[in-house]
């Protein structure tokens, strides 16, 4: 009997099972939808009530929105805010650095500066600066070599309402910004200053090339908010007739007796300017964060 080779066919492997198709149902957030609907309805209702209110004369608003006097007042407000912001920032950096000084006298001076100009209400400061000529009749800078004076002018001729407004905004803003600068400087580790000192760098170079570039990431965002706050606070200079936007619209309202409509004109311009600077602040913060 001959042996016959028997070949057995390999057992077929079972077909891979397909995963069961899951029917994923997103979680329903009915509360969010209801809340969003209520908010939208409230906003639309508020807009509708203002738009259809017979007590508002929107024709007056449209008539004076691009009035040359209003635009000139807006320009004064912008110049006043930008110059005041620059001066306040310079003072804030100086006061913030004095806060970090080793001299106790400088630290006390910086603390006193912040205490005074954060504590005095802006309207009080503006009224005082606007009437500075009542207390100091003349501004005199003596010349010790000739016995004469380098400068001798009447205070009222130098400190006009516009100059007094800029000084008031700058001094008040410096009190708040100095704390912002100080917090940014403190955020940079002391070890980096000590390392720079060990490398032979002077304090000024350490501040310029090591401390301030890192502190900018912390300083820039709140400074943008301070600028917007100063822009709104510039309306207070109307108490000394600083020539700003609010001063102009209040003057026009005394002629047409439409105070609310003129205040709406000022409000529209304030909101538009703040919206533009808010967008600029967003891109500036993102640019600083990328460094």
Describe this structure as you would to a colleague.
It is a single chain. By secondary structure, this protein is mostly helical. It has a single domain, classed as MetI-like fold, CATH 1.10.3720. 69% of the residues lie in helices and 4% in strands. Strand 1 and strand 2 form a beta hairpin. The longest helix has 32 residues. The chain starts with 29 loop residues before the first helix and ends with a helix.
- The residue fraction in helices comes out at 55-70%
Order of helices and strands: HHHHHEEHHHHHH
Low-confidence stretches: none
| Structural class by sheet pairing and helices | mainly alpha
Mean pLDDT level: 83
Transmembrane segments: 30-51, 71-101, 113-136, 158-178, 199-220, 235-255, 262-284
Domain ABC transmembrane type-1: 74-281
Keywords: Amino-acid transport, Membrane, Transmembrane, Transmembrane helix, Transport
Protein name: Amino acid ABC transporter permease
Descriptive terms for the model:
MetI-like fold; transmembrane helix; two-stranded antiparallel sheet; 291 residues; ArtM/GltK/GlnP/TcyL/YhdX-like; 11 helices; mainly alpha
């Amino acid at each position: 009997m001959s042996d016959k080779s028997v070949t057995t066919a390999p057992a077929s492997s079972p077909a891979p099972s397909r995963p069961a198709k899951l029917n994923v149902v997103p979680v329903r957030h009915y509360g969010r939808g209801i809340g969003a609907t209520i908010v939208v309805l409230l906003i639309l209702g508020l807009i509708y009530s203002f738009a259809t209110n017979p007590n508002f004369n929107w024709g007056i608003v449209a008539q004076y929105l691009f009035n040359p006097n209003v635009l000139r007042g807006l320009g004064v407000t912008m110049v006043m805010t930008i110059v005041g912001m620059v001066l306040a920032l310079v003072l804030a950096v100086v006061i913030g650095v004095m806060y970090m000084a080793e001299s106790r006298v400088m630290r006390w001076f910086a603390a006193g500066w912040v205490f005074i100009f954060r504590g005095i209400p802006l309207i009080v400061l503006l009224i005082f600066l606007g009437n500075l000529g009542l207390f100091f009749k003349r501004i005199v800078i003596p010349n010790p070599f000739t016995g004469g004076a380098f400068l001798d002018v009447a205070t009222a001729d130098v400190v006009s309402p516009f100059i007094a407004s800029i000084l008031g905004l700058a001094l008040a803003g410096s009190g708040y910004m100095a704390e912002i600068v100080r917090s940014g400087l403190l955020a940079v580790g002391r070890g980096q200053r000590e390392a720079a000192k060990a490398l032979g760098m002077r304090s000024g170079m350490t501040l310029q090339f090591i401390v301030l570039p890192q502190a900018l990431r912390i300083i820039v965002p709140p400074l943008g908010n301070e600028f917007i706050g100063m822009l709104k606070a510039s309306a207070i200079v109307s108490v000394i007739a600083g020539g700003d936007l609010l001063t102009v619209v209040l003057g026009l309202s005394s002629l047409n007796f439409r105070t609310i409509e003129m205040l709406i004109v000022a409000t529209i311009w304030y909101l538009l300017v703040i919206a533009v600077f808010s967008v600029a602040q967003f891109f500036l913060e993102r640019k600083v964060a990328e460094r």
